[in-house]
């Protein structure tokens, strides 16, 4: 299910990332934080009052020159307005109201997007006078915050979730596979879209009839219906979006949230860079099915080991996604492109697969017999029961004597045992433990 997107905007140094970390820290975690997904987080998921959302910190740009600052905050705010469902605008009580704050406020005000204004660095709850001048921004009642002391964050979240849109109406039927092409600029996303749609027996169809069909492209092949999510965004050649990683990430996030299957496009000619990992990490965290699509394979000088070496390199770089299949293609020559949609179809199926409870419990009982759970200070984890509670991605709940005794490595072991029986190819799986 697509989560609404919240974007944090504001001048550098007002405390955006501090607040971001507070919000992420307060999430109800069912999602794992696995080794390998380490990075400076700018994107995360959270839940407040039972409402899930994803959140991006658009800030973090170091700028000292005032002209450059205004340009950057303007760009950031414009992007947030375009891509986010709710905007969290942070200002700084210690610095007071600045021209850059006013620039941002004007842009936000015109957008008609829901906005929550937080005034940070109000460290002393007894003195609240600094907040009054921020009323002049015309964005309603500011929420007093202290990111470092954790003051006001709950109030801020209350205001924020009030403004989240209702669950978006599902635009496409269950049988339609929604595909997002993601990847850094110039890997060949838009060429791949064209090549896919130009493939033999692909019929571009008109199944939606809503506002979204202006940006999505539905099509059909071999009796299966697909939708390419945000085709317009992929084709848009906006300098703004490509200027920095954060901006292109935000665009990808929207698409990922709405998709079933993420095609993580990699430039075979250039190899893998850090940014590819970040983008793949979003698909993983969002729980989408994923496929690595190595494009421009025509331009790679090859011998009989090249593909094997590239595959190893992908596995090394993306340790957190061993489940994702890899397809080598060329948008230019259409080489192997016909292999892509069958893989998409397969991972989509695996992504929504349910394993019967009795079968799961047999697998876990066998796994425990072969390799008993570790003990901690003389106490041993006991698993009473396992059941699958969700699909897309497959999510399992383990009922145990004490969730504290469950270790990541044992969970990984159980995952591997389940995957031996049911590969769940292309899909992350999730575990939660509950005390029985
Ligand atoms: P960003 O550039 O907007 O993401 O800001 P950061 O979160 O990196 O914070 C900038 C600086 O302000 C850091 O030195 C923080 O420790 C500090 N800071 C953040 N929140 C508060 C706060 O509530 N009170 C005070 N006094 N300092 C804060
Ligand atoms: P995007 O920014 O990810 O949408 O990338 P584009 O589709 O605009 O492609 C960027 C550049 O890579 C263009 O010059 C394309 O012609 C080129 N390109 C795309 N796919 C291929 C491919 O399969 N092989 C080769 N050799 N070049 C490609």
From TrEMBL:
Molecular function (Gene Ontology), one example: ribosome binding
Superkingdom assignment: Bacteria
Pfam families in alphabetical order: KH_dom-like (PF14714), MMR_HSR1 (PF01926)
Entry keyword set: GTP-binding, Nucleotide-binding, Repeat, Ribosome biogenesis
InterPro entries, A to Z: G_ENGA, GTP-bd, GTPase_Der, KH_dom-like, KH_dom-like_a/b, P-loop_NTPase, Small_GTP-bd
Domain EngA-type G: 4-168, 177-352
Positions with a binding annotation for GTP 2: 183-190, 230-234, 295-298
One BP term from GO: ribosome biogenesis
Keyword NADP among UniProt keywords: no
PROSITE patterns from the UniProt entry: G_ENGA
Binding residues for GTP 1: 10-17, 57-61, 120-123
UniProt-listed PANTHER family: GTPASE DER
Known role: GTPase that plays an essential role in the late steps of ribosome biogenesis.
Subunit structure: Associates with the 50S ribosomal subunit.
Family: Belongs to the TRAFAC class TrmE-Era-EngA-EngB-Septin-like GTPase superfamily. EngA (Der) GTPase family.
Protein name per Swiss-Prot or TrEMBL: GTPase Der
